[in-house]
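User: Please predict the structure of the protein below. I'd like the answer in structure-token form so I can feed it into my own downstream comparison script.

Assistant: Understood. Taking the following sequence of 197 residues as input:
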Amino acid sequence: MAERHPRNRTGRSPLRRGLAVAVLAVGMLTASMAPGYGTGPTTPVPGPQFTPLTAAVMTEPAPFRATDGKTHLSYELLTTNALPSSARVRLDRVEVRDARTHRVVGSLSGQALADAANPVGDPLPGADGYTPAPPGPTPTVIPGSQQWVVWLDLVLDRGQRVPRVLEHHLSGAVLTAPVPPPSRRRSRSPRPIAPRR
């Protein structure tokens, strides 16, 4: 068993501790999730924002050298729409940054994001190796009370430093359910009942 450094109380490697910090950072999401249909750009509020969309890293990304000679970090990001089933969240972009330098390491948006995301429990299209995967629907919309997995494969160029801690920035919009038109019927206000004498 490896000896722990006196300051390392958890006994975990710096990468594992960093990933735990990344999971907490993802949980707080520095995303800008604007209410409405997201027709106009929104300016993110500085600092962590608590949103109805949460995300968590499911497995510790382990760097490996692939046949293309580049280093890859492949892992899953579990997203949860915590809103009721009538409210959907449109996920426009997932951006992964080096937490130390804040440099973007990789990102997904548009069709690439749609192809990399699927609901929990649904097999990844084309995962059987025989059936070609159809293009995912764009935009990527996560129904309320559902979890989706975003499959990430970060590719680092030769000689590029592997980040010790990752930050995940998600951007999109809350798609509210249409409000039904007001009823034409007038509601009657209750009348007090007079006591009998």
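That's the full token string. The first strand starts at residue 32 and ends at 34.
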